[in-house]
Specification:
218 residues; elongated; 9 helices; mainly alpha; 0% strand; 66% helix
Length: 218
């Protein structure tokens, strides 16, 4: 058990932080949602009903959508684009280890590499594909949750329901998306540029402390 935790401590730390943050979102989210409902003359909802509400679905997947978009774009764009001096970029010299052609003869090569063909083609792009699939799924769920929440509040306030096409043309959904996208793109820009000049000893996301600013890559 101790060995498992040691070998997976980074992912364990982040899943624990995720669970803690999700619980916080639920606790304060249901409080906020019920306050809005009561102020509009409706009754409070239970935890189960809240987890199925548009308010919770929209708030959750609005953030997931932007995270998967920025990670997918970052993984894909770093194939072609570079930033001199950044630890987040590939270097400008010869091809790096990550660029080598996969060989089924390599020891412990994953099965798609040994299988070849379409399986290899998918596998060698699987990280980018999976991140964009997760982005698209989150985008759709964000839209569904946002539309559901809009119509729930319209119902409470005695306003007409909004259709799929009508909501697609309204500003709320796109504002929710773009306000998250811009923050994610800014954070990626920050780590790319700051890693040129700043260091963190011991981190895989930083260059060695004594490395020159012009050194590109880790």
């Amino acid at each position: 058990m101790k060995k498992f935790i040691h070998q997976n401590s980074l992912s364990i730390a982040f899943i624990v932080l995720f669970i803690f943050s999700m619980l916080g979102q639920i606790i304060f989210g249901i409080e906020l949602y019920n306050k809005e409902l009561i102020e509009n003359g409706s009754s409070a909802v239970s935890l189960q009903d809240y987890l199925l509400s548009g308010h919770f679905i929209e708030a959750t997947f609005e953030n997931w959508e932007s995270e998967f978009l920025q990670m997918g774009l970052f993984v894909w764009l770093t194939i072609f684009l570079k930033q001199k001096g950044s630890s987040e970029s590939k270097g400008f010299g010869d091809e790096e280890e990550v660029d080598r052609e996969p060989s089924p003869q390599r020891k412990y090569a994953p099965w798609p590499v040994k299988k070849g063909g379409i399986w290899l083609k998918i596998y060698q792009n699987s990280l980018t594909i999976s991140l964009f699939v997760l982005f698209f799924a989150s985008f759709c769920l964000h839209f569904y949750g946002s539309l559901k929440d809009e119509n729930t509040m319209n119902l409470v306030e005695g306003k007409p329901q909004v259709s799929f096409l009508q909501f697609m043309q309204e500003s709320r959904f796109w504002f929710e998306s773009f306000q998250n996208w811009q923050s994610e793109f800014l954070s990626v820009f920050a780590i790319i540029v700051l890693s040129i000049f700043l260091r963190q000893k011991g981190s895989s996301q930083s260059k060695p402390v004594d490395a020159p600013n012009s050194q590109t890559g880790e």
